[in-house]
What does this fold into?
Amino acid sequence: MKCIIVDDEPIARKGIKKLVDQISQLELLGDFSSAETASEFIQTTTVDLIFLDIQMPGINGIEFARSISRHTLIIFTTAYSEYALDSYEVDAVAYLVKPIDPAKFRKAVDKAITYHSLLLEEETKSVENVEDGCIFVKSDRRYFKVNLKDILFIEGLKDYVIIQMEGQRIITRMNIKSIHELLPQSTFLRINRSYIINRHHIDSFDNNDVFIKNHEVAIGNSYRDAFFVELMKSRT
It folds into this structure.
């Protein structure tokens, strides 16, 4: 994957470059101190992944992310944890807080590599209506049956959604609002702009996050009240 680093701090760029250099699947094309200079670069060069700071002079990382092509993935690298929920609005693959833990960096990159592969290979997929507790996902001129009970969560990624099951991901060209409308909403709860979770697979939760298997999903401020109301319904 061809990647760039955008961060106004020279030390931060150097640190991320060292992490990038340790991953053979990444090819670093350059590093930039501002969104403006990075924007000029990606207008003429294909970039698959951007490691992007948020707090920068001029155009900040969130604003820059909104202008980036849907084919370019984003991993935010920032010193400020409070922007995590904002990252969902621009379909970021991951949100890493400085100082960046190498293991978390590797996990985020692995996720980006997987999603990049899926986006390249699964351009023609679509989802059919729910029938008898399942959905049918189109791939290579065939429809594959996915049982709703097996879905852990669904993640929105630009113009696609990723259906996450245990040990398997399926990507389809569809927006998250449309697929949510197809699903039984008493079971599938939207907890932020980018995630729908299957309530039956929740292992634990607190006021800010839901934990499913080894996945942690943030609860968006505007979705929090509805989420807890729905959970309480199942206890009455």
Summary: Residues 37 and 46 are 15 Å apart (CA to CA). The helical segments are 10-21, 35-42, 61-66, 84-89, 102-121, 176-182, 224-233. The domain at 134-233 is CATH 2.40.50.1020 (OB fold (Dihydrolipoamide Acetyltransferase, E2P)).
